[in-house]
Amino acid sequence: MSASGVIRGGGLAALAGGALWVAVFAVYASRSQVPGPPYGSFDGLRVPGLLSLLLIGLGFLGLDLPRWRGRGHGRLGRVGFDVALLGVFAIVVSGASWPVGMIGAWVLMAGSLMVGAAALLSGTLPRWGALALMVGSVAFFLFDTAPARAWFALPYGAAWVAVGYLLWSRGGSAAEQPSRVR
C-alpha cells in the first residue's frame, strides 16, 4: 500500500472512530441525566467505546506517517504521539476500568494536545484541523461523570472526525501541507 493510501486509511479510521466516540459519549451523557440505573453507566458502551479508541489510534498512525517520510511534527509531536499511544494502550489493556482507564484518558488527551500543537506549529495539518484537535483535547479535560460535564467528551470525537476527514480527503497532502507564508 502506498504512503498516501496508509494516510487515507488512517483518516477513514479516525473519521469512523471519532463519529463512534461522539455516539458513545452522547449516549453516556444522556444516560447520566436519567435518575437511577444506569445513571453514569457504560453498560453496553464499553466495547463500542474501546473500538472508537482503537480506530482513533489508527488515525494517529495515519497522522504520524509524514514523520516516517522525513517531514514530521518535531520533538513536541514525537513526544505527543508516544504519550497519546501510551494512553490508548493503558485504556485498552485496562478495559477502560477505573482508575487506570481514566488516567489513560488523561494521558491520551495530553498527548493529543501536544500533537495538535505540534501540527499547528509545523503546518502538517491545516490550522483549523490542528486547532480542532487542541480544543477537543482541552474540552475532554473537563469531562466528568457528573451529568452536565459528561458532554465535554464530545468535542474530542468531533475533532477526530475533522482530522480524519482531512487525512482521508487529501491523502498525503493533508498531513504534509506546508506552512502559510506570512
Automatic annotation (TrEMBL):
Membrane-crossing segments per the record: 12-29, 49-67, 79-97, 103-121, 128-144, 150-168
Keyword tags: Membrane, Transmembrane, Transmembrane helix
UniProt name for this protein: Uncharacterized protein
